[in-house]
Records
---
Amino acid sequence: MNEKTTAGLEHLRDLIDGVDQQLLHLLRKRLDLVAQVGAVKHSAGVPIYAPQREASMLAKRRDEAQSMNISPQLIEDILRRLMRESYLNEKDVGFKQIKQDLGHVVVVGGQGKLGQLFSQMLVLSGYEVKCIDKNDWQDSAAIFDGAGLVIVTVPINVTCEVIRDKLTQLPENCILADLTSIKEAPLAAMLAAHSGPVVGLHPMFGPDVGSLAKQVVVVCHGRHQDAYQWLLQQIEIWGARIVEAEAERHDKAMQLVQAMRHFSTFVYGVNLCKEEADIDNLLQFSSPIYRLELAMVGRLFAQDPELYADIIFAQPGSQHAISDYLDNYRDALIMLQTGNRQAFVEQFQRVAAWFGDFAPQFQHESRTMLQSVNDMKSS
Ligand SMILES: C=C(O[C@@H]1C=C(C(=O)O)C=C[C@H]1O)C(=O)O
């Protein structure tokens, strides 16, 4: 490389640094505005996440980008990342308290990670929260006295037992709710233990989410919906979307969405371990999709085995879903063993037709994810 070109390059790089610094100032300005939005939302009780505003803003910026000869996807990516930052910043000012005269909240299992997250959100919304953990039952009568809401978030395998044995003496108008990832049995146990308002909740996220914006909370109605409607509204203010479901259908879906999926991820990990796969080496040869897949498998093993055992063992019906999967795996293996390439292709086409429009939609979505996996590489 000759001197002159290098000097030219250095000059351009200085200009780029200058533009990036301007970008930083603009980002600061945007974050300050978002903080103001957060304060206004807090006092008005407006949800942190505003999907319509986001959609219309993205559409306008995409159009403008197009007319400036900038890729619309580029501005969309940048704005989506900024909006994620906004949710975290808006959270700092706290949330409007929807129910002023509730009395306190008791979180049963308050030391668990999900219990801590919900306690934090409730405290950020002005509620007084008391926790009960497994060693605190001797004081429970005093803790429950005057409670307006009791949230049960203990391991699945003891949930029904705790409800049945410990939650029969709650104040009459107190709301009893649970956060268990299965719903039918805990809901029935709550309805039997308590004659006041009852609601089953299933937050469809782990405790490591930075914000509840865009997350889903499944609601299975129990009794006296009018009495706990404010709680659903409060959760919406935190940014989450409420999805109503019937307990039995929810549990059936969980056999596929959770039990079978986590189980196959578990087996994938077992297989890598038994094969003594060299992860460093695999990563070197990995495409972004493989890296993403490995990350999804690896992240399971960074978490609590008890939690996954609970989820997988929670419903007897999950065995059938998992065993059907094994049958399909075996059938597919037979195609391979018998060299039946044609059968493979035909099966593939059948499944593709069954996915229908979802297949291209998923391809599109995953492309963006894969690109960000690639962006994260630093060598
Ligand atoms: C800033 C707001 O809150 C959120 C963040 C947005 C942003 O960063 O642009 C847009 C919509 C909301 O989901 C708002 O409501 O305007």
---
Amino acid sequence: NNQSKLAINMSAKQDYDCVVIGAGVQGSFTAYQLAKHNKKTLLLEQFVLPHTRGSSHGQTRIIRRAYEQDIYTQMMGEGYQLWAQLEKEAGVTLYRQTGLLVMGPETSGDYPLVKNTLLKNKVPTVILSRDNFHQHIPNVVLSEGHGALLDVTGGVLFADRALKAVQDQFQKLGGVIQDNEKVTEIKPGPVVKVTTSGGVYQARNVVITAGPWTNKLLAHTGFQLPLETVKINVCYWKEKTPGTYGVKQRFPCFVVTGSLESKEHIYGLPSNEYPDLVKICYHIGSKTDPDYRDLQTDTSDIDILKRYVSRCIPGLVPEPAVVESCMYTLTPDRHFVLDYHPNYSNIVIGAGFSGHGFKFGPVIGKLLCELSLGEVPSFDFSSFKIRRFQSHMKSAL
Ligand SMILES: Cc1cc2nc3c(=O)[nH]c(=O)nc-3n(C[C@H](O)[C@H](O)[C@H](O)COP(=O)(O)OP(=O)(O)OC[C@H]3O[C@@H](n4cnc5c(N)ncnc54)[C@H](O)[C@@H]3O)c2cc1C
Ligand SMILES: O=C(O)[C@@H]1CCCC=N1
């Protein structure tokens, strides 16, 4: 019976080269890379897969090279190649090029930084003038004082499909996924002991990619990162005329960048996953505990979105037709954490993807794998090291 199976599992320790904790986009790509390097790898997930309770679910995500900082634009150079490689290996389409429309205060905040990064890194870009904006992007109103450009490489990633593809490839390479197994204890040491609701595992190396639950897991190792988890209301808005903002009509993904004066921080994707519904979200959420996400009921973001939609996207009904939930795990500077655990060099942490990590999944998986194998990382990850938070950190002991 189940009880005795559990008793047998709990007593028999199973050995792996590496245990990856958390089967979101980052853990799944890390496990896949480790298996590609012939490492005996276990990917643990607390929920039954696929699930909708973390940060990687949903049908779509934006992919883009448009960023304020060179490092992300450059990382995505390799990112696109690795996405294409997975598409080829798995025989599925994961990326649809739509372009990414960036709009924002022309001379302040993030817009001029993004423009500069794109041009400096020679990313195919079209700068739109106020005069020709309407001709290229009908049915969107460009706010007064805003500039607009198109990152031609931008588009949609089919997120759920991508997660399944990378997990399938991992298993084809001999990797093991145990879902519905929550990690309840991590005992660091030269061989790390990982206890779950279903068994006990040992590995020379562990990678923690637990998204919003990262600090709950790190508490077992006596360490905490300065992370904040927020809930995002994922809103879908109905087209007044079906197809006006459709992926098939090549309506682009878009981002409205903020500045000190205008705190819009809004982004959207063409209608695709639900017929005639355009996904538009606010990039700032309200603090939540991932185990009680649905108790966070703040909807002030939806009020901001309603005003924006009615002012700038006149072809949509300014009331969301569908609202789903997702979470960001924020660092104070909104940059990722990709590093060794400060006290245990055989535990690697990938966390704090701050609401923009999906597109980087293949690159992050590669880097976390390299760190775990003790290899020299293939790109300079100094911006992502934990020591930048020295003043924020506190011990959980
Ligand atoms: C609304 C929304 C829109 C976004 N849009 C974009 C976008 O357009 N483009 C983009 O690039 N990024 C976007 N992102 C960000 C991106 O989706 C995230 O950065 C990324 O999914 C984070 O992945 P993760 O693997 O770190 O976390 P998660 O997906 O949360 O994975 C962590 C996993 O760890 C598991 N876990 C936790 N604790 C345990 C435990 N004790 N035992 C076992 N398993 C455990 C969890 O169940 C979970 O499955 C968006 C995010 C949201 C919420
Ligand atoms: O990461 C992305 O591209 C999106 C859009 C901007 C805000 C967050 N996620």
